[in-house]
Each structure stands twice: as structure tokens, then as C-alpha cells.
Amino acid sequence: MRRRFARALARPLVVAAAVSALSVGSSGPVAADRVVIGGFPVDASESPWTVALSSRDRFGGTRAGQFCGGVAVGRSTVLTAAHCLDKEVLGGPPERVRDLRVISGRTDLLSDRGGQEVAVRDTWVNPAYDGASNAGDFAVLTLAEPLPADSVIGMAVGGDPAYAVGGAATVYGWGDVSGAGEYPNSLRAARVHVLPDALCEEAYPGDADGVYDARSMLCAGEATGGRDACQGDSGGPLVAQGRLIGLVSWGIGCGRAGSPGVYMRVSDIMRTLGWTRA
Ligand code: 4AZ
């Protein structure tokens, strides 16, 4: 089945139903071998810059209202995917979502303790974002209060060796672990590789699912499939050599050979925003 990136997110009730039916917590047997897709459990302290985007009003309280990922690049600045703030996802413009928050430093979404929840004071969605091609899929959130200084990750500037094809990278999130709507309660990570642009250009030449643009996007996963981001991971970090290189954005399905994950290229986000230094 071909699955567009925003489908599950656009139907929050599907997410809520899947959660109560499946309970794929880190203690469950299902979670042991399949995770983000093909991943493993991590503690939030190992990636303190990975945040959950949350609205309990919109997505229900079971998993603290988590619906997307994000990454702290400044104490009060979080990057996420533009499609996470689509009106189809949020039911209206982001400023109408009264309880839009980021949750930082919390591994298990079922626990009300650990880490902190910080209100989003302002949202800026890239005006060039195009939901048809998936171009420009990033947004900037400004927090009402700063996160601890050690919760911030540095961004890899253009030309950083962290972007090198073949390099190891890790993606983090609370997204679907199977591609069938199984949302874990605890944070996961998957080890992937930066793949040649040609693989994504071949996989996504420009049909209804999106167009791979090597300048602004980054191709990652495993050529043989198996490890990948999935629904609910969007906006979260792809990290290589300790620096942020990508934001989870889109793809067809999850973990399938021949359909790698597509990420926003962080160096291009920086260029667009006029951020010259990490
Ligand atoms: C999503 O909807 C999503 N396999 C993110 C990444 C991929 C697919 C879907 C890539 O958040």
C-alpha cells in the first residue's frame, strides 16, 4: 500500500485508537525487535534535544498528546516539520491550538513525570512549504520558557562531513514501529545511513507522493529497507557525528527496500533562515 506521509497525522483519532488497542510500550514483547522501524529503545537523556510535540486537546491524553517530533536547536527554538502544523493535522491554524507544547526530557509518554512540558509561544511555518511536492517541510517553534542549555544540539553547516553519503546516522522518535499504526509509549532510535541522492531521485521522481530535491532534502535509511522513520516521527532529528543533519519529513511506507526515508536537509534550512552558524 502506498501511504502518504501525513495520513495518520491527519486522522488523530486513528492514532488514539491504535494506542489503546496495542500498547507497544518498551516492556511489551512486540517492542523488542521492531522499533521507529527496526530500532531500539533509548532514554531521553541520550538525546535530550529530541522533543515530542503535543496537544492533548487535539490528540487525546493517552500518550501525552504526542503527534510529531521536534528538535531543540536553541534553548527556546525548536525545529519541526511544516506538515505537522497543517490545518488538516491540527484542525485549524496552529495559534488556535491552545495547548500546543513541546515535551522535553521524557522517555515514556505514559509517565506524567520526568522532563518538562513547555508551551509554544510562537509558530513560524515556512511559507514556501508545498504539501504537493513536500518541498520546504520545516517550521520553527519559539518556546515560552527556555530549555536547559544541555538540551540543545548543534546543526551541521553545509559541507560538514556529517552529510557524507555512506555515513552512519541515527533517527529518534515516538512514531509508528511497524507501519501499521503501532505507536510506542517510549522513545526509540534507529541507526540508518545517509544514502546517495540518486536512490531517492529514483524512488521519488515526482508523482503524487512528492518530489525528491537533493538540494533541500536528504535521503537516509538502508538500501535494503528495514530501518526507517515512520508516521509520528515527523519533525524529529536525524543526527550524524553528534550534529543535526536532517528532520524527518516523508517517504512511501516505512522501512521498505527501494523507498528510503526523506529528510529536510538542515544546511538548507539554515540557508533559508539566514542562520549562518550552528
Ligand atoms: C510520517 O508520516 C513519515 N518512512 C515520516 C517518515 C516516513 C514516512 C512517514 C519515511 O511522519
UniProtKB/TrEMBL annotation:
Q: What is its EC number?
A: 3.4.21.4
Q: Where is the Peptidase S1 domain?
A: 36-278
Q: Which residues form the signal peptide?
A: 1-32
Q: Which GO terms describe its molecular function?
A: serine-type endopeptidase activity
This protein's source sits in the domain of life called Bacteria
Looking at the Swiss-Prot or TrEMBL record, what is one Pfam family this protein matches?
A: Trypsin
Please provide the record's keywords in A-Z order. Disulfide bond, Hydrolase, Protease, Serine protease, Signal
Keyword Protease assigned: yes
Question: GO annotations under biological process?
Answer: proteolysis
Q: Which InterPro entries match?
A: Peptidase_S1, Peptidase_S1_PA, Peptidase_S1_PA_chymotrypsin, Peptidase_S1A, Trypsin_dom, TRYPSIN_HIS, TRYPSIN_SER
Write out the coiled-coil annotation as residue ranges.
none
Which enzyme type, at the first EC level?
A: hydrolase
Q: Which family does it belong to?
A: Belongs to the peptidase S1 family.
Task: Tell me the protein's name.
Answer: Trypsin
Q: Whose protein is this, by species? A: Streptomyces chartreusis NRRL 3882
